[in-house]
Automatic annotation (TrEMBL):
Domain Vanillate O-demethylase oxygenase-like C-terminal catalytic: 94-269
Keyword terms: Oxidoreductase
Coiled coil regions in record: none
GO MF annotations, alphabetized: oxidoreductase activity
InterPro entries assigned: Cholesterol_7-desaturase, VanA_C_cat
UniProt key word Oxidoreductase: yes
PANTHER family assigned to the protein according to its UniProt record, in alphabetical order: 3-KETOSTEROID-9-ALPHA-MONOOXYGENASE, OXYGENASE COMPONENT (PTHR21266:SF60), IRON-SULFUR DOMAIN CONTAINING PROTEIN (PTHR21266)
Protein known as: Vanillate O-demethylase oxygenase-like C-terminal catalytic domain-containing protein
Lineage, highest ranks first: Bacteria, Pseudomonadati, Pseudomonadota, Alphaproteobacteria, Hyphomicrobiales
């Protein structure tokens, strides 16, 4: 099976709250699987041949793997922080590489042009200098000191603010975004993108949030985030090539693409190649 080291990673395969004993059929890296709840209420994941796969339930989602993960699912400490609201946004199917979906999430420069008057607006299009590193101790890609002016940074925001961001890539198809929390400036809102690779060129995207927002109705929080991602979907589905190029000479980066460059270098280092294009065609 193609996929290199990615076969041994954890992937989201469904919302735990929506599981039933009847089960839900889906795909993981080209393999048909079924996600269900057993008689004891626990999540179970099996292949079409009936082989049981490893299972974890975390961040509102069921996680599984076709391989043998040698480490536990990455931690998000804010998921255990009292007072936060946890938002299961749902799922959006996107006809693009799962790696493309993550890379787009890391891109700041597109805010004014794709998410106009929400996450960005002209003439505030400049991406200020920020810091990117591959943190060797935890083996994750991090971007810090990211700042961008936004007309409506969150559903709870009442006006335009300069928002500070931190981006974290703890797994090849997952990203965690920490951003300014309008109601609590001393805290971070957490917005994640969990991507399920159905195949190399199609994926299910499961956004999830951990917020300090006691006022906004849950439906509005979900709708706000879905609106953002649906604006991204049309861009993702029209990118050429459809797979994510890992050769640095295949696309011309700019200063705003530092996180993408680090992400691609990190993928290549670990042989995370499922959904990637290795050489120019």
């Amino acid at each position: 099976m193609k996929g290199g080291a990615m076969i041994d990673e954890w992937y989201p395969v469904g919302l735990f709250s929506q599981l039933s004993e009847k089960g839900n059929k889906t795909w993981l890296m080209g393999e048909a699987i079924e996600v269900a709840r057993d008689q004891d209420g626990n999540a179970r994941v099996v292949t079409a041949e009936g082989k049981a796969l490893p299972v974890r339930v975390r961040y509102g989602h069921v996680w599984s793997s076709l391989g043998k993960p040698d480490k536990e699912l990455f931690a998000i400490p804010e998921a255990d922080q009292p007072g936060r609201r946890f938002v299961d946004v749902g799922v959006v199917r996107v006809r693009c590489s799962p790696l493309r979906a993550v890379e787009n999430f890391l891109d700041i420069a597109h805010f004014p042009f794709v998410h106009t008057d929400i996450l960005g607006a002209e003439p505030h299009t400049e991406v200020e200098n920020y810091k990117v590193e591959i943190r060797e101790g935890v083996d994750e890609v991090w971007a810090t000191q990211v700042k961008f002016y936004q007309p409506q940074a969150a559903k709870s925001a009442t006006g335009g603010i300069t928002t500070e961001y931190m981006y974290r890539v703890p797994a090849p198809t997952c990203s965690v975004l920490y951003k300014t929390c309008p109601p609590r400036p001393s805290e971070w809102d957490v917005i994640t993108l969990f991507v399920q690779p159905l195949a190399e060129d199609v994926c299910d995207v499961w956004p999830w949030m951990a917020l300090f927002d006691d006022e906004t109705p849950m439906t509005d929080l979900i709708h706000f985030q879905q609106t953002i991602f649906l604006q991204d979907r049309s861009i993702l589905e029209n990118q050429i090539p459809s797979l994510l190029p890992l050769d640095p000479g295949m696309e011309i980066p700019t200063r705003a693409d530092l996180t993408s460059i680090a992400y691609r270098r990190w993928l290549k280092r670990h042989n995370y190649t499922y959904g990637a294009q290795l050489v120019a065609q």
